[in-house]
Amino acid sequence: MPTALSPHNPRIERVRDLRSARARREHGRFTLEGPTLLAEARRSGIAIEELYLTEAAATAHADLVGDAERAGAGTYVVPERTLARMSDVETSTGLLAVAVMPTHTLAAILALPGPVLLLAGINDPGNAGTLVRSAEAFGAAGVLFGRGGADPFAPKVVRAAMGSLFRLPVAGVTAGELLAAAAAAGRPVVAATLDGEPLAGADLPTRAVLAIGNERHGVAGFLPRWDRAVRIEQTSAAESLNAAVAGSIALYAMFKK
Question: Which residues belong to CATH 3.30.1330.30 in the chain?
């Protein structure tokens, strides 16, 4: 049975703090919102520590509340205005969970079979989350988030990944860490650039680290060098592809081969 909390309970501010990347790293916790993501997290083995709901959501999602309580999570009912203040979305779903952040090392991800995706300076959380979804769909071993770009467990990234972030190992890296570790693991770094060889005819190794850069600076804004480069051919009249679209196409091409 959920416990009622006042708007001034110190738990409220602790949850609000998790909207910052620094607090998430310090506490090893992140937040997720809505019944769909909560169900995905539970199905994927993510540990839910706390669940905050409005009275209406507690009634509408009694099955999810009971499931969380049986798994050991604390459940709390808060006023609608309080949950809206805790929420990162414009219109709250009435349900917000605090979960334990899964941790993976760079070396462990590079040791897994299959290609690895590197987000080389991608700042847009929607693009980052979409690329995590594509990485899972097309058999990537994991996703590496370049330091200085989007944070993997930022609320918008979590929403855009639609559950893939709960199942696919991710880690943050610097350019130097990535290049040294990839060389040690025998993984070539393949960058998506405007002047690379055509992707359609490229014979890419299945153990490649595929680097996708942001739309303004490209991969070169993050990585000083790479082993090979590929480009997605398109009509000259079209602008360069959105990073999430380009990365998804490249991942699919590697998956098919």
Answer: 3-100
